[in-house]
Amino acid sequence: MTGRLRESLRRLRLPAVPLLWLLAFFGLPFLVVVKISLSDPATALPPYTPVLDWDAGLAGWADVLAALDFENYRTLVADPLYLEAGLTSLAVALGATGLLVLVGYPIAYAMARAPKAWQPLLVALMVIPFWTSFLIRVYAWIAILKGDGLLNQALMALGLISKPVEILNTPAAVMIGVVYAYLPFMVLPLYAVLERLDRGLVEAARDLGASRLSAFRTVTLPLSLPGLVAGALLCVIPITGEFIIPDLLGGPDTLMLGRVLWSEFFSNRDWPLASAVAVVLLVIVAGPVVLFREAESRRLERP
Amino acid sequence: MSRAHPLAWAALGLGMVFLYGPILLLVVYSFNASRLVTVWAGFSTRWYAGLLDNGPLVESALVTLKVALASAGLATMLGTLAALALDGRRRFPGRPLLTGLVYAPMVMPEVITGLSLLLLFVGLGIPRGFWTIVIAHATFTLCFVAVVVQARLRHLDRSLLEAAADLGAAPVTVFRTVTLPLIAPAVIAGFLLAFTLSMDDLVIASFVSGPGATTLPMRLYSQVRLGVTPEINAISTLLIGAVSLAVLGASVLTARRGR
Amino acid sequence: MTTPAPPPATGRLRFEAISKRFDTHLAVDGVDLDLAPGAVFCLLGPSGCGKSTLLRLTAGFEEPSAGRILLDGQDLAGVPPHRRPVNMMFQSYALFPHRDVARNVAYGLEREALSRSEIAARVAEMLRLVQLEALSTRRPDQLSGGQRQRVALARALAKRPRVLLLDEPLGALDRALREETQAELRALQRRLGTTFVVVTHDPAEAMVLADRIGVMAAGRLVQVGPAAELYERPATRYVAGLLGDVNLIEGRLGEGGAGTLRSLDTPLGPLRAFDHHGAGAAGAPGLLALRPERLTLGSEGLPGTLLDATYLGEKILYRVGMADGRVLRASGAPGAGFSAGAPVHLAFAPEAASLLPAEPA
């Protein structure tokens, strides 16, 4: 028994540090969020009650537990604003991810079929935006989309419209921004799968009587599904909680959960309500996160 | 033979225009003489000259660099450890937990990570400032380091490690003399990735920073909210230039190594 | 189509002046070839000689830069791969990893307007043919190399192609399995009567499988014929060396031409040999090719010294040092008692030796 315990401890030598770090700074904070989401706001520092008093012992814990309630969640359910924000988040995340698949798949496919010598360059071109500041890239669209912006100027110069159309501060601007910012996240996992795909398989399908389209449908597409799933999850989860893009490009009516959380926290200083929004957001993305984790660890741990 | 369909090529071309067009426009307009950002009024570098006199801006740039260096260093150590722990068939209690904790922060919405860390720091009574940003950044970037290093470890020829052990190297020596040199490119790449992610972060830093620790993205954000200005274009251009040079340099280096 | 021959009436493949250029590289250079229906033809040559390109041109993955490919008289130009009545067995096997054995075999049939039951029946028949009935629900990654090879074969045969193209069909198998599989493949082809075109770099494999062999080098077809003809009457030094051990003696050609016995003036004196293909004009440099088993050790012929004798079971290999310092190899039945260092004489029948042009190699 002690032998087995010692063996376990020996095996934990390597993982112990990262495991403890992530538990302390990623796992534990979620519990804190859940606790605060059950607290009441207060004009104090910290701006919520009850505050756990470390010196009060077990009785203090009991008092805290007794003071917790679901008031914030009731607020969330009662106010249609929050329901709408939740639905908008989901709609934007799912819609944009669908759009990303449509835009990203042909790009990834062309990259994978490009001459071998070009491929490192094409990958680098996909990766560079990813290394470039997210904030700056989203900001760059403001000058393009605003009323007297370059897109409107171009459209008017072409005679397609007679007076500027409102694009900035609309859901359309948010969609454009999201597709733009997340495109590499969709393209790169797809490219990774398509590039490794044995071209002989498509040739075999063609040889066995499949047209280009049916070879794609029966061979390429099913075999690229893992990349498609990875890319979609890599996009849909963070987009659901996206803050910067709806904040800079969206109008007052494109309320998304990330933005609501931000304003509850920074503008209204209602930490407990912000925490409740975080918990709701977490519940929404929990399923996809678990799926992503499974997919990634399976992909990486395959021999 | 199985070349891509012309439509796929068109998509690739348009995709590149889509990705780079906005950035290029931003760069071009940073050299615009006019303050009106959408009207071209001749070439000028006046906005760049003005940047150096902007004291708070330079200061927050320095803060950002320091945070990025410290957090990337920490993340590289933790992430490499995590990758080594998760490598191969190594079994230990809590393995599924560690796997989950490594992949989840990659996709977790930043507002959640930021808020939850802030509440933790407040709850524990840790004063907010430089070090809380470092801890927060190390936490979410270590996952990216772990994934990059893990990918490299998977392609490592096991027989090299066995050969070293066979020639009398103790496990620690095997790691120092064989494993580490072989995974070094991935470790460096992981460091650079963590560094850029930290430099780039607005949301998490906004939550966990305190007085006196305003990062460049935070300062940029407060200005961006007020509208498009040539100064922001100029800073952005400098940042984009620095990153492009770094990525190009790194890819040239790895290409030469691969040959 | 034209001749009412007994089965198979189809599967006649003709190459007419076929060339294929990739950028600046001429992969296939003016190949003319007429393949008999129902036979096994082997394209033999080193990697990069153009044999695989010829196969891919036939399958339709490449279009020829010049020339025509005719299948039973029909020009295949412009016919996409999926409309060609030929099927290919890929070198890597190219088994679909997301489909099990039965669904791999069914793939080609599903592209046709066949009913479910027809497909099932044909798949079962194919799996029986390659003895894989028991493994029909396995995935490719759960199969051994030999089993994968048989799945690939069954899949390519399922559509009953007029010509089956096999790209290094046994290249991924280990030696023992390869020999066993060669025999199986040969027997299967006999039973089906389908035209087989096999690409291989292994001369032994070509000799076992083929009715006729075409030797390729640098994009050109060097010599075509049955294995015995290529072995006994090689047209070039390359073909001579490819199919087995050979002694080469250089010299100047005497009078004569193709189809005659000619003399060759060599450092070992004038030697007589048969010129099958036209080795060159009188006075031109030539080569005499002689298989070791055609050289006999005795008391007559060219004088030399026995350097050593190696016992190889079914035969003994002798190395004999000649007057000018060269070493010739001869082989004979075990039992003859020659000892190393003894003076010996080498003799051969002129008809057993071939005259070749000195160049090209």
UniProtKB/TrEMBL annotation, chain A:
Topology class, membrane: Multi-pass membrane protein
Keyword Calcium (UniProt): no
Gene3D superfamilies registered for this protein in UniProt: MetI-like (1.10.3720.10)
ABC transmembrane type-1 domain segment(s): 86-292
Alphabetized PROSITE patterns for the sequence: ABC_TM1
Membrane spanning residue stretches: 12-38, 90-109, 121-142, 172-194, 215-239, 271-292
One GO cellular component, as annotated: plasma membrane
Transport keyword on record: yes
Name under which the protein is recorded: Putrescine transport system permease protein PotH
Record InterPro entries: MetI-like, MetI-like_sf
Family: Belongs to the binding-protein-dependent transport system permease family. CysTW subfamily.
Record key words, sorted: Cell membrane, Membrane, Transmembrane, Transmembrane helix, Transport
Main location: membrane
Gene label: potH_1
UniProt superkingdom: Bacteria
From TrEMBL, chain B:
Membrane topology: Multi-pass membrane protein
UniProt keyword annotations, A-Z: Cell membrane, Membrane, Transmembrane, Transmembrane helix, Transport
Entry's transmembrane regions: 7-31, 67-86, 98-124, 130-153, 174-197, 234-255
A GO cellular-component term linked to this record: plasma membrane
Cell location: Cell membrane
UniProt-listed PROSITE patterns: ABC_TM1 (PS50928)
Highest taxon of source: Bacteria
All copies of domain ABC transmembrane type-1, residue ranges: 61-251
Similarity comment: Belongs to the binding-protein-dependent transport system permease family. CysTW subfamily.
Protein name, entry field: Inner membrane ABC transporter permease protein YdcV
Lineage: Bacteria, Pseudomonadati, Pseudomonadota, Alphaproteobacteria, Hyphomicrobiales
Gene from which the chain derives: ydcV_2
UniProtKB/TrEMBL annotation, chain C:
Family matches, as Pfam families: ABC_tran, TOBE_2
GO BP: putrescine transport
SUPFAM superfamilies: MOP-like (SSF50331), P-loop containing nucleoside triphosphate hydrolases (SSF52540)
Residue ranges of domain ABC transporter in the record: 13-243
Signal peptide: none
GO terms assigned for molecular function: ATP binding; ATP hydrolysis activity; transmembrane transporter activity
Entry annotated with the keyword DNA-binding: no
InterPro entries xref list: AAA+_ATPase, ABC_SmlMolc_Importer, ABC_transporter-like_ATP-bd, ABC_transporter-like_CS, Mo/tungstate-bd_C_term_dom, P-loop_NTPase, Transp-assoc_OB_typ2
UniProt keyword terms in alphabetical order: ATP-binding, Cell inner membrane, Cell membrane, Membrane, Nucleotide-binding, Translocase, Transport
GO cellular component, one term: ATP-binding cassette (ABC) transporter complex
Family note: Belongs to the ABC transporter superfamily.
Protein name per its UniProtKB record: Spermidine/putrescine import ATP-binding protein PotA
Native organism: Methylobacterium frigidaeris
